[in-house]
Amino acid sequence: MNAANQRYVPRAAPPIRALERGVAVLRAFRPGSELLGNGELAERTGLSRATVSRLSQTLLRAGYLEYEPAQRAYRLGAAVLSLGHAMRTGSSVLRVATPLMHGLARKMRINVGLAVRDGDEMVYLESFRFNVRTAQRLIVSGHRVPIELTSLGRAWFAAAAEPDRAALLARLKARGRKRWPAIEAAIAEAASSVERRGFCYATWQPQVVALAAPIVVAPRPIHVLNVSVTSDAAAATVVRTLEAPLRKLAGEIQQAIAALDAQDHE
Questions:
Q1: What's the CA gap between 8 and 219, in Å, rounded?
Q2: Which string of DSSP letters, residue by residue, matches 57-96?
Q3: How many Å apart are CA 113 and CA 124, to the nearest integer?
């Protein structure tokens, strides 16, 4: 990526470690883990139990955690939900992208999602599901998927600035996964596909074929658009059906975001 496509980051200031650790405690809560005690929070964050105890008490007083005495554990408070709502309703990207995404999903009876990177995962900002089997998990706003396995994540790698890409690849490699060489090769292949065709695809879930295209409008973060279906057809057949609609929609959203930014600078 050239400098024009890199995200602007304000001049770095000394980090506030207590704030970083407090956010880490909140991040420890994931779907399926409603209640977490200090021991579990310490294990998930890598912080000491004493530090977690102080942070959880502070977050409790601020309304970001609730305490369950019978279980001696915490759950996320309503204040966390209000932050998510504020983000969604205040997002100019979602304001222009949502009607376009919904239109394509409904017209073709497919799934259409928009996501950004959050750490070493991709998090959905919006998702429309018109091609879902009952047994599948429902993908909604806030749902996270692995960055290294999914079309969303691999499209992000293809568009990311080299320092960001290299740092994240090194962190993932350090985990020592047995299949890492194959995963790394698939990430490189996806980058080549994005460069040549504007998108990549992955089939990391059974019978699900997902295509993704990065949307880069500096200085905003990289957004990634994906379309997917559950199908018994060969992946190549699904790709031929979905690649043109995906590229068209990604281009429309990118133009809409660029127009918004141009208005802001008038």
A1: 5
A2: HHHHHHTSEEEETTTTEEEE-HHHHHHHHHHHHT-HHHHH
A3: 7
Q: Give the separation between CA 199 and CA 193, rounded to whole angstroms.
A: 6
Which DSSP state fits 129? E
Model confidence at 1: pLDDT above 70:
no
Assign 238 to helix, strand or coil.
helix
User: Which of residues 7 and 205 earns the better pLDDT score?
Assistant: 205
Distance CA 198, CA 49 (A): 47
Dihedral pair phi/psi, residue 122, rounded to 5° = -105, 135
At 85 the pLDDT is: 92
CA 187 – CA 174 distance, rounded (Å): 16
Q: How many C-beta neighbours within 10 Å does residue 226 have?
A: 29
Three-class SS state of 9: coil
Cβ atoms of 225 and 246 closer than 8 Å: yes
Q: Report how far Cα 173 is from the mean position of its chain's Cα atoms.
A: 20
CA–CA distance, 187 with 149 (Å, rounded to integer)? 8
Interatomic CA distance for residues 187 and 185, integer angstroms: 5
> What is this structure's pTM?
0.87
Q: Strands, DSSP E only, in the chain? A: 65-68, 73-76, 111-118, 121-129, 144-146, 200-202, 208-215, 223-230
* Cis previous bond, 219, omega within 30: yes
User: What distance in Å separates the CA atoms of residue 259 and residue 217, rounded to the nearest whole number?
Assistant: 10
Give dist(CA 4, CA 124) in Å, integer.
25
